[in-house]
């Protein structure tokens, strides 16, 4: 059963006066046989109005600006008209100002201007048509019909394009009057194709009829009517939105349909939720058809627009699988030190995941840390270097990153020593203590290197830290380290510290340390003497 409700026509207004219509429903004003006004007959002979129309470029520009809903610019151009142009315009000049005043919301002003125009020539149909159309746009249909009666009486038996246009506008805003209204508008257009202010009402009429056809399962007819609608009024956002939906629903043309909807979204139309849903649908279809790249593109756009659908079901499984591939690419790039490749793959991974960004970044970092640890175990310090760099890029604060960094620098220090690069080995050992200041092994390695290189003061400081951290964790380093620490202290002119270190070592000595214990006792006697 067809419902009815009042609708307002878009009469060169910058704001949308038509309600948004969802796909699968149609505007109740469509169809029906209401005549929509007094003295109307779409089949009557219509006189041409072109002979009264001034085609000066400035005047044409004002009409176009009014039609586009730009009263500010229209008023500025109109104010530039010279006295002769104003005189030549005659009745139309106050009517142009009336339309501008209406768009600016000045009711008393536009009414006065229509009367001013009517006074110039009471038999000219244009003041009546202007008044009818403004009343119709305001939803005041009784006033609009009364003006039609006045116009028909004033003009007489001649049906003019202006009044026929006005009848059509009243009809299409009358419930059930869209079909008749389209007939009036088409007859006005046939009589005078240059008739001002006809294109947008024709566009709206075809739009309404397209919705009616779609509701009656006449999909091809709906498409045909929408294409005609947009030829007359290509800028109407609601009509373009419905056309985009039809392209998707009727022709299954997601590319063209989504292009239309994306453009509307860029222009500020609030269709983000709807657009996200269509991208999700396009992704699902592409996935079923085995078009993974296309599916991913649509799912990512849906996710960007806030789609909930991509977080569940088939889409979620697909996105997780794709993110796993992206993570594999990130690891492969990291192993060979391809920083750009790592950045690209990390960004891809984060985009594909439905988790919050920080969680996705942390997962990347932990994966890289695990891979770096494995690479170190295999002795591949080059791969470990790239993997740790990738982990830092993803999340510098990830758990375990300092430990693996520290292990990497230790491995690099050993590699440098084996290559005879002692200075480089020392730098790596220092870096190991910097990334993890509480690492017992790092301080011990640094101390041993410093001792071997003759930096006894440095060795003493480093070994003292290693010893302190070891005692704090109940992991004593052993009497050999204490002996090296004491020697370093002694050789760096700190005999008191050396004595204290040796005495502590003797207290902590184990039964199996008997041989070195005897050596330490002899050394201690020498220091005390």
Automatic annotation (TrEMBL):
Residue ranges of the TM segments: none
Entry keyword annotation includes Signal: yes
Keywords: Signal, TPR repeat
Residues in TPR repeats: 203-236
Signal peptide per UniProt: 1-31
Protein name: Tetratricopeptide repeat protein
Top-rank taxon, per record: Bacteria
